[in-house]
Design a protein that fits this description.
It is a single chain. The chain has helices spanning 38-49, 58-68, 109-119, 127-132, 137-149, 157-160; strands at 6-17, 20-26, 31-36, 71-82, 85-96, 99-107, 123-126. By secondary structure, it is of the alpha+beta class. The longest helix has 13 residues, at 137-149.
């Protein structure tokens, strides 16, 4: 799976932004950011937090369809970046009485990340992408420090306005 052409990464942090969510991905050496919309940012957060949902969301539905078809997610690869837009591939393994095959699908990295988290599968980034993105490790450290120092949101805030 992992070779010199791809690098395993993890989600190192999430930060809400005006237009969505910043997803910090990286390893011990480098952190980079992919911006996603609010809905996918929430889905990533729920997956990371292990939130059980009353009804399946779109990504849950996709996961159920894959399971129903006997396909398993092998891993995802963030394989390209062009002017700040990232691209990804989802690699599925399908096996039945006729044999085995690997299916590779084009996908948004945001959707791919949610599926990888749901299936507890690796998130990989192509080395050429990893090498081309700016290191955002210092920014992530500042964000995490700010989040740790921020007072926790309380439900009683709504009552204060009455």
């Amino acid at each position: 799976m992992a070779s010199s052409l791809v690098i395993p990464v993890i989600i190192k942090g999430l930060m809400p932004t005006a237009n969505g969510c910043a997803v910090f991905l990286g390893d011990d050496n480098k952190t980079f950011v992919i911006y996603v919309d609010h809905a996918v940012g929430n889905a990533i957060k729920m997956s990371l937090d292990g939130v059980k949902k009353e009804r399946p969301l779109t990504h849950d539905l996709i996961a159920h369809i894959l399971t129903g078809l006997g396909a398993t997610l092998e891993h995802i690869v963030i394989n390209h970046v062009n002017e700040g837009t990232f691209f990804a591939r989802i690699l599925l393994r399908m096996e039945n009485e006729l044999g085995k095959k690997i299916v590779e699908l084009d996908a948004r990295p945001s959707d791919s990340i949610v599926l990888a988290l749901t299936h507890k599968r690796p998130i990989l980034v192509a080395k050429k992408v990893y090498d081309s993105v700016d290191d955002m490790s210092e920014i992530l450290e500042r964000v995490l420090k700010q989040q740790a120092e921020a007072p926790p949101e309380s439900e009683s805030d709504e009552d204060d306005d009455k």
